[in-house]
User: Fold ABC transporter ATP-binding protein from Phreatobacter stygius.
Amino acid sequence: MLTLDAVSLFYGPIQAVSEATITVGEGQVVAIVGANGAGKSTLLKAIAGLALPRSGQIRFRGEDITQLAAHKRVKAGIALSPEGRQVFPDQSVRDNLELGAYSRKLSTVDLTRAIDAQFDMFPRLAERRSQPAVTLSGGEQQMLAIARALMGEPKLLLMDEPSLGLAPLIIKEIFATIRRLRDAGMTILLVEQMANLALAVADRAYVLETGRIVLSGTGQEMLQNARVRAAYLGGGH
Ligand SMILES: Nc1ncnc2c1ncn2[C@@H]1O[C@H](COP(=O)(O)OP(=O)(O)OP(=O)(O)O)[C@@H](O)[C@H]1O
Ligand SMILES: [Mg+2]
Assistant:
């Protein structure tokens, strides 16, 4: 579904990603793990069209999208649930969801149906549908950010640190949601610092260190890898 071939990205003179090659198959959950500043968000931005590679190629469902505008990628089926759960604070939960379907130009009936589907998936959001997003808890805002991304009916969901800043119980819920999406056939590229949880849910995983992919394999292989355990799993729990 998605391939990155030797993709490099720079911020001015600073290289953030060096010749990253990544493959995501249809229906797979693929995880990218790495420390702060490794280039994980930059990679997702490149796939969403929010940062342009200096070199390399990005292909999505057979098409070269390396230079495609971000809004055209949304139309093609790529959705980003960004780092730091960027919901529209003053808009209600329902309006946030509606904005997520903006590019689909749905009829009122279809829009209501699509919103109700998200409320089925996230009952807490249903209870809070009229509240401004800013009044939601951190975990609820993360759910809203995911639900809003899903409103575009993406074929590929990019998730940037969905667990960031959340309590353990909420993190469990978020990962249960990721599993449900996977079971429903969604293709997900997941960036996480909670490496143990991400690797446990991932079909494949890549380890990114200072912009370079240094390891890849199945989620299970990465969980058992000595280097991964030492660097990202707190020395082998
Ligand atoms: N807008 C920017 N301008 C300049 N440098 C940037 C910019 N955004 C990111 N960088 C730099 O690029 C590198 C990669 O950043 P990126 O946000 O991709 O890392 P990350 O792996 O997502 O980190 P974190 O786990 O902290 O979210 C870092 O060194 C960062 O300082
Ligand atoms: Mg990041």
Summary: The pocket of adenosine-5'-triphosphate (ligand 1) is lined by residues 11, 14, 16, 34, 36-42, 83, 193 (CB under 6 Å). The radius of gyration is 17 Å. The domain at 2-232 is CATH 3.40.50.300 (Rossmann fold).
